[in-house]
Design a protein that fits this description.
Helices cover about 80% and strands about 0% of the residues. It has about 210 residues and is mostly helical. It has one domain. The longest helix is centred in the last third of the chain and has 29 residues. It is globular and about 50 Å long. The two termini are about 25 Å apart. The relative contact order is 0.24.
C-alpha cells in the first residue's frame, strides 16, 4: 500500500504547486476576492475529478485483458510523467503577474479544470493504471490521497498568494518544483518498469 500512498502524495503535491490553469484561478480569486474565494476555487477537483475518474473506470471496464490494458496505461502514463518532469525541469523562472492580468474575473475554477487536459491525461493513464491494478482499499487510498493532497497544495498556494505573491515567484518555490520533477521522473520510470512486468510476466524471474 505504501507505493499507492506515496505515489499519490507525490502526484498530488506536484500537481498542486505546479503553475497551471487551476493554480492561476486560485491565485486570481484570492487576490481579487479574498482568501475564502481562493480556498473555494481550490476545491474544484472535488467536483471535476470524480466524473473523470468514473469515466476512466467505465472505459477500462470495457477491456477484457486488464493486465495488458494496465501495462499499456502504465507505459503511456510513465511517458506522460517523464514529459511532465522534463517540462518542470525546463522552467527557469515563474512569473504569474502577466497570467493574472490576462485571466478573466468571471472564469470559474470548475470550468477551467474541466477544460484542462491535465486531469484527463492523469486519470486515463497513470492514475487509472494505479486504480485498476490495486485492491479496492489501495485504489481508494490512491484516489483520496491524490485529490486530498492536490487540494491541500492549492489551498497552501492561496494562503501564500494572500500573504505575499512574490513568494510564489521565489527561488525556493522554483527549487521545490525541481525536486518534485525528480520525484515525477522516478515514478515515471517506475511506471514504465511496471508496464514491462505486466506486459511480459515472468521476464524478470531469474
Amino acid at each position: 500500500m505504501n507505493e499507492f500512498f506515496f505515489s499519490a502524495l507525490s502526484f498530488g503535491l506536484a500537481s498542486g504547486i505546479k503553475p497551471g490553469p487551476l493554480g492561476v484561478i486560485v491565485i486570481q480569486q484570492t487576490l481579487s476576492r479574498g482568501l475564502p474565494a481562493g480556498v473555494r476555487a481550490s476545491l474544484a477537483p472535488l467536483i471535476t475529478d470524480g466524473p473523470i475518474i468514473i469515466a476512466a473506470l467505465w472505459l477500462l471496464s470495457k477491456f477484457k485483458s486488464i493486465d495488458l490494458l494496465a501495462a499499456a496505461m502504465s507505459l503511456v502514463g510513465g511517458m506522460y510523467l517523464l514529459w511532465l518532469a522534463a517540462k518542470m525541469f525546463r522552467v527557469r523562472e515563474i512569473s504569474l503577474s502577466e497570467k493574472l492580468r490576462s485571466q478573466g474575473s468571471l472564469a470559474t475554477a470548475v470550468k477551467v479544470n474541466l477544460l484542462n487536459p491535465g486531469p484527463y491525461l492523469f486519470w486515463f493513464t497513470v492514475g487509472g493504471s494505479y486504480i485498476i491494478r490495486g485492491t479496492a482499499f489501495e485504489s481508494a487510498v490512491f484516489v483520496i490521497t491524490a485529490i486530498g493532497t492536490l487540494i491541500a497544495s492549492k489551498v497552501a498556494v492561496a494562503v501564500l498568494a494572500s500573504r505575499f505573491l512574490p513568494t510564489l515567484e521565489s527561488p525556493g518555490y522554483l527549487l521545490t518544483m525541481k525536486f518534485l520533477a525528480v520525484v515525477m521522473l522516478g515514478f515515471g520510470l517506475l511506471s514504465i518498469v511496471k508496464a514491462a512486468e505486466l506486459g511480459f510476466p515472468g521476464a524478470y524471474d531469474f
